[in-house]
Design goal:
Residues 69-144 form the Thyroglobulin type-1 domain. The chain has helices at 71-83, 168-181, 218-229, 269-318, and strands at 43-46, 53-56, 116-118, 124-126, 150-159, 190-196, 199-205, 244-245, 248-249, 252-261. It is α+β, with helices and mostly antiparallel strands.
Length: 322
């Protein structure tokens, strides 16, 4: 996403990010190799006083080149650019899915989502720390008292069903390595990996008390991973997601992510009522259709019987009387 900030005659460790040190050799003092920076749609590189800095587009906030950029800033930059275990887990009844699509978010000075988000038509709603809506939409009088943290993320994946089943232990180890090395997520936050051919589930868990300074947020790691799976990698100048289990490529077809907050979402009964009405309408239509088919079928059968009776009566009249 952005280039490292050279300091003290060498280059800071850039993790999955790109850039060069001041020597231009591509090597830091400790011998790490840095890939030359390539300009992308999410960051603007500046050199005030000869010092390399990176600012997120759309918000203008300085970003740390040694770790992942927050999901809020990535969405902000994206919208700015556009204007310019073996047993599977059932998601909690309170789990949220991001069905609202892209929007231009409001981020605070730390790059986190603000609790209340609004669009350009004065429609507002409350979000969680992942930026997913957790209330009904309202007007600008809507109050969002706090940013509720998402502490549990369930990533539901599916690989190509025509490939042979992977060894669960090997798959578990490879996915944990991926999140550790590519997304810099501490291994303790990958709670479990479940597999039932061809479905894979990755559980990420991180409470506010567990997240230390400098730890990557599970929300950011999940977002980077989702973009990789969709072929829309946030990392510039790097290939797409290439995961191999014992040399066999893991070819993923789709991903669905569930978010569980520390507090249940606050949707009103209107949302539930609309869904219930839809179910009732479908059932009613099915019943009416069944009744119509039954009536038509009975009428056709009755018509056949009447024709047979009339025919038999006519034949009896033609017979000579004794």
């Amino acid at each position: 996403l952005h280039s490292p900030d050279p300091i003290a005659g060498g280059a800071r460790r850039a993790g999955p990010f790109v850039g060069r040190d001041r020597t231009g050799t591509g090597w830091g003092r400790a011998g790490q190799l840095y890939v030359p920076h390539q300009q992308d749609d999410h960051v603007r590189k500046e050199r005030p006083g000869g010092r390399c800095q990176c600012r997120a587009l759309g918000s203008g906030l300085l970003v740390d080149c040694s770790t992942l950029t927050s999901k809020c800033l990535l969405l902000k930059a994206r919208m700015s650019a556009s204007k310019s275990g073996r047993a599977l887990v059932r998601p909690s009844e309170h789990a949220l899915v991001d069905n609202d699509g892209l929007y231009d978010p409001d981020c605070d000075q730390q790059g986190s989502f603000k609790a209340r988000q609004c669009n350009q038509t004065s429609v507002c709603w409350c979000v969680n720390s992942v930026g997913v809506r957790r209330t009904d939409k309202g007007d600008q009088s809507l109050r969002c008292d706090e940013l509720v943290r998402t502490h549990h993320i369930l990533i539901d994946l599916r690989h190509r069903p025509d490939t042979r089943a992977f060894n669960h232990s090997d798959l578990d180890a490879e996915l944990r390595r991926l999140f550790r090395e590519r997304y810099l997520l501490h291994p303790k936050f990958v709670a479990a990996v479940h597999y039932e051919h061809p479905t894979i589930q990755i559980e990420l868990q991180q409470n506010a008390s567990q997240k230390a300074a400098g730890d990557v947020d599970i929300a950011d790691a999940a977002y980077y991973f989702e973009r990789d799976v969709k072929g829309e990698s946030v990392f510039p100048g790097r290939g797409g997601l290439d995961v191999r289990v014992r040399g066999e490529p893991l070819l993923l077809e789709r991903t669905l992510i569930y978010y569980l907050d520390e507090k249940p979402p606050q949707f009103s009964m209107k949302r539930l009522t609309s869904g219930l009405i839809a179910v009732i309408v479908v059932v009613a239509v099915a019943l009416v259709a069944g009744v119509v088919v039954l009536v038509v079928t009975n009428r056709r059968k009755s018509g056949k019987y009447k024709k047979v009776e009339v025919k038999e009566l006519g034949e009896m009249r033609k017979e000579p009387s004794l």
